Amino acid sequence: MPNYEISLLYPNEEAIEKSINGLDSPKITTETLESLELDYAIDLQNSRLCDMFTMSREVIEYRQGVFDDLLENEELSVLLNKLLPIVSDINDLRRLSNESTATDSYLYSITEIELYISAMELLIEGLSPIKDSFKSEAFCALYNRVYELTSGEYYKDLNVKLKELTKRVREIRSVTIGVNLDSRLQPESAGVLSVNNEKFKSGELLQKILRLDFKNDEYTCIASLQPFKKGQSDNQQTALSNAFNSALGDVFKSSMRSWKKVVSSYVLENADFLIKLAPEIEFVTKATELIKALKETGNELSFPKIHPPKDKIFVAKGIYNPIVALKTGTKMVLNDFQFDENGTFFVLSGPNRGGKSVITCAVGHVFALAQLGLPVPASSAEISPVDGIFTHFPTSAEDTIDKGRLGEECARLDEIFELITSKSLVLLDESLSSTGSYEASYIASEVLSGMLASGCRGIFSTHLHELGMMIDDINERCKSLSSSKLDTLVAGMEDGERSFVILRQKPDGKSYASDIAAKYGISLEKIIKKIEKNI
To answer: What is the pLDDT of residue 496?
Structure first.
């Protein structure tokens, strides 16, 4: 199989090209990931999570197979985690080799071959026992490629020659230098006479006694050995180092000339596929850790059924917020959620701390994780991928200095309208909370009308209970603009307690207020009783 087809994220070259050119890549920024805290859940060091998303049904299903194999084979994650630092070292060596002296470059070439062989041995030994359990095209292709490379005569010959070469190079312990002197016994020229596999020893009597070695062999100096660089200026040290490097380079040249060709024609080419896989390996291993961590909390995950983006389907049973689950380590209250012809955009209201923000983010999490190819936090789900996820969440005070809070909120909303399409998802959490109820409700009705006109899907989580009463008017107003409809959701209460269950019904702000007031003893009846006690 050609190298370009070995990918853990893309099924073929065409899918890779589409991703590179942004044709199947949804608009999901780092800011959106921060809002949803997905950067916390999948913390990548050597690549960007926002580059991993896709709209392609083919790509998502391909990745689902990869994660299925990773979850079914614990050894596979362990193997990839061991492989990653080796591949990283190969990449670093290539960079260093371009900036190094000739001698260092030769040594780096040998080390790269050693690392390449280590990586291939690790892969073939790790993949062979479990290869028959693979269901995904990706891991089958990876095993076949590794088997093809390691079973060839060239690879076997590479191992033999590497051992011979490293034995010669790694055993170098000293050089013998010849120095010509002038009539004043000053050095006038010098050169390397030999490269040795033994170190020179001091010729001092005390050292001979300690070594119990009194014979005058060729590696015993007639004067004491002095530490290199001691008493030398920087220029002297540089000149001497360059001389040694040049001499050693000449010695290595005959051995390494053929090896540089091997590195260029074989190792470089065949190690490339490992280097290209490195960001994908980091992503799938970190994502698998997230999946396992969520399962340990006792919450369910499932691979969603993927529909074409144009169908705009989203039906999810038993969804929950995975970030809250990770932080609390507990089983979550589950909710069902769907977008349909009677509700493409929802106004979600209810009591403070009743779960409005949690469920708003949860819907975003389901879309995002699905479009990474991961199982989603739900018992079941059917999803049409979106072409972008846009969030409008509260910001810090520092971000509002120039325009003021309301000005900043409106500016960010304006940016969202510049980018959304009918296939986008928009999540608004407590937007327009910086102004009075009347002004906020008016601006919110304009925003919601714009969302309906665009045809996008989304949620407006709000403290503005009266906004729910305006839904029919907004739908009527936008009837001529779009077939999209606005509907309402409510964060439920049971016996004065927050249930965290999201209900598809009209809001009743007064009942929530009275329930909360009663819970905390702030009702007129209870207040009067307390006052009477003090009279």
So the answer is: 63
Residues of the chain falling short of pLDDT 70: 1-5, 97-107, 164-172, 192, 195, 203-217, 222-266, 268, 396-404, 434-435, 493, 495-496, 509-528, 530-535
Rounded to whole angstroms, the Cα distance separating 430 from 415 reads: 17
Question: In the chain, what are the domain boundaries?
Answer: 3-18+47-169+258-292, 297-534
Report how far residue 235's alpha carbon sits from residue 241's, in angstroms, rounded to the nearest whole number. Answer: 10
Contact indicator for 135, 70 with CB cutoff of 8 Å: no
Give the pairing type, strands 345-349 and 389-392. unpaired
pLDDT at 2: 42
Give strand ranges (E) for 227-359: 305-306, 314-319, 335-339, 345-349
Tell the burial category of 510 from Cβ atoms under 10 Å away from its Cβ (0-12, 13-18, 19+): exposed
**Count of residues making up the chain:** 535
Strand partners, 425: 389, 457
What's the angle, vertex CA 361, arms to CA 357 and CA 365, rounded to 5? 165
Q: How far apart are CA 142 and CA 79, in angstroms?
A: 13
pLDDT at 198: 80
Residue 189 pLDDT = 77
Provide the pairing of β-strand 345-349 with 457-461.
Answer: parallel
DSSP letter assigned to residue 99: T
Q: 3-class DSSP state for residue 348?
A: strand
Q: What are the two backbone dihedrals, phi and then psi, of residue 244, each rounded to the nearest 5 degrees?
A: -60, -45
First-residue to last-residue Cα distance in the chain: 90
Task: Report the C-alpha dihedral over residues 118, 121, 125, 128, rounded to 10 degrees.
Answer: 140
Helix (H, G, I), strand (E, B) or coil at 27: strand
Domain 297-534 has what CATH class?
Answer: alpha beta
In this structure, what token pair is assigned to residue 128?
């062979």
For 340, the token pair is 């349909």
Burial of 85 (0-12, 13-18, 19+ CB in 10 A): exposed
Q: How open is the CA angle 488-491-492, to the nearest 5 degrees?
A: 115
Give the containing element (helix H, strand E) for 184.
Answer: none
What are 379-395's pLDDT values in tens digits?
999 999 999 999 999 87
CB count in 10 Å sphere of residue 268: 16
Q: Which two tokens stand for residue 390?
A: 């846009």
* Cβ atoms of residues 360 and 502 within 8 Å: no
Instruction: Report the predicted TM-score, pTM, of the whole model to 2 decimal places.
Output: 0.80
Q: Tokens standing for 305?
A: 């059924």
Q: Give the whole-angstrom CA distance, residue 440 versus residue 467.
A: 9
Could you count the other beta carbons within 10 Å of the beta carbon of residue 52? 22
Which residues, in sequence order, are CB contacts of 88 under 8 Å at separation 6+?
46, 278
Phi first, then psi, for residue 409 (nearest 5°) are: -60, -45
Read off the tokens for 73: 């084979």
By C-alpha distance, which of 65, 486, 59, 55 is closest to 312? 55
194 — phi, psi (to 5°)?
-160, 160
In whole angstroms, give the CA distance from residue 407 to residue 430. 15
